[in-house]
Structure formats: structure tokens, C-alpha cells
Write a structure and sequence with these properties.
Shape: globular
Number of strands: 11
Order of helices and strands: EEEEEEEEEEE
Distance between the termini: 40 Å
Radius of gyration: 13 Å
Structural class: mainly beta
Strand content: over 45%
Largest sheet: 7 strands, mixed
């Protein structure tokens, strides 16, 4: 069974930082492009960041570029999202995603709440 366990969410004041982690079991993470997505209340899930299998290529949404950093440790089967300069509009449930062609897996989500 494939599981993506996301953690690290919580309540933080605007301007603060959080680091999310997503650890996989049942798959070898190095075979997958990894991504983070988020879903705010009443809104659709949106792309946040992605990282290639080897970690050499990253991509970010315009709303987080320069504030968030995605990274991965394939030896630990884990992907991270370092979030700095958080804003109230970053409040959402954050989901990690593993994608490899026709195989696509989602984690259970971790809640990030940024207070003003």
C-alpha cells in the first residue's frame, strides 16, 4: 500500500516560517516527480511547487516564488517544503503528490494556518 505522510503544519503568525515534510512508504520516491499542492477553504486545490526526481529542477507558483523552497532527500524517501515569510493567504491544507506517468498518489494533507 502506498502512503504519503505529510507533517509539519500548524499555526504561525504572518512573517513566520514552517517546514513541511512528506515521507513515502510503498514506493521509491526517487522514481517520482514530487509536488506540493494546497487547498484553501472554499477554493480549488492549486499547485504550489514541484521537484524533479533527482532534485535538479524545481518549479513554483508565482504566489510562493521567492518565499518557499522545495527539496527532497531520496535516501530518506522524503520531500520538504520550507515556507518563509508566510502570509494569511497561505492558509490552506497542504498536500504532497507523487507522480510518475500513469501513477499518481496523494498524501492526506497537513493544515497550515497563518494569523495576521
Amino acid at each position: 500500500e502506498v502512503q504519503l505522510q505529510a507533517s509539519g503544519g500548524g499555526l504561525v503568525q504572518a512573517g513566520g516560517s514552517l517546514r513541511l515534510s512528506c515521507t513515502a512508504s510503498g514506493i521509491t520516491l526517487s522514481n517520482y516527480t514530487m509536488g506540493w499542492f494546497r487547498q484553501a477553504p472554499g477554493k480549488e486545490r492549486e499547485f504550489v511547487a514541484s521537484i524533479s526526481r533527482g532534485g535538479s529542477t524545481t518549479s513554483y507558483s508565482d504566489s510562493v516564488k521567492g518565499r518557499f523552497t522545495i527539496s527532497r532527500d531520496n535516501a530518506k524517501n522524503t520531500v520538504y517544503l520550507q515556507m518563509n515569510s508566510l502570509r494569511p493567504e497561505d492558509t490552506a491544507v497542504y498536500y504532497c503528490n507523487a507522480n510518475r506517468g500513469g501513477a499518481n498518489y496523494w498524501g492526506q494533507g497537513t493544515l497550515v494556518t497563518v494569523s495576521s
